[in-house]
Amino acid sequence: MATLVDRGIPITSTEELEAVVGTPEPHVAAKTRDRLHEVDRLWLAAAPLVFIATADDRGDVDVSPKGDPAGFALVLDDTTIAVPERPGNRRADGFRNILRNPHVGMVFVIPGRGDTLRINGRATIVREAPFLDDMVVRGHRPALALVVDIDEVFFHCSKAFLRSKTWQPDTWAPDAAPRRAVIAQAVERRGESIDALDAYYGPSYADRIYG
């Protein structure tokens, strides 16, 4: 028989929250900007990975990683960036959300760095934009891109990466969870053999990421 988990005491107001976590220092509270600084541009030029959070009009949330060679997010002007869309599983969860609710949250990551660049704004899905020519990788020109009008941009401190030891190789344990083929067979591709899935997700998988 299932038992209820003790979920603790809910926080239901800003006052209750601040009684526990406190209030930010003035320089932290005021650190958000509404346009890109030169240091933001330098960060975007060095970042090969971004996590994009979206939500539909019901509030259902999705977070999707997007990655490419460093500098893949193009700066169009001081208040606008563009992120290319690459071939995937065609679910397009984030894009479907954006069609119903344009607000997005983005975290840009540079490997080895604990701090991150956060950009919040409103996104539009575009095709046949001239800047798509500047997003060609290995001969692949993206069919779509996200154009994000910036509402907020700011840097986030490194505490999460320091606590998790994300960039310390001696803490890595990639085999702690089942390999990709085993996961796929368990929850996604149940009718396929492990040998076939190992072959699909093997070394040749990297050759197909733009195909």
How do you describe this structure in short?
With 211 residues, the protein is of the alpha+beta class.
List keywords for this structure.
211 residues, alpha+beta, Pnp Oxidase, Chain A, seven-stranded antiparallel beta sheet, 7 strands, 24% helix
Enumerate the spans where pLDDT stays under 50 for 5 or more consecutive residues.
Answer: none
Structural class: alpha+beta
Question: How many β strands by DSSP?
Answer: 7
CATH topology of the largest domain: Pnp Oxidase, Chain A
How many angstroms separate the termini?
49 Å
Helix content percent band: 10-25%
Strand content: 25-35%
Q: Order of strands across the biggest sheet?
A: 2-1-5-6-7-4-3
Helices and strands in order, then pairings?
Elements: H1 14-21, H2 26-29, H3 38-46, E1 49-55, E2 61-67, E3 74-77, E4 80-84, H4 93-100, E5 103-109, E6 116-126, E7 145-156, H5 159-164, H6 180-187, H7 194-200
Antiparallel strand pairs: 1-2, 1-5, 3-4, 4-7, 5-6, 6-7
Helix pairs in contact: 6-7
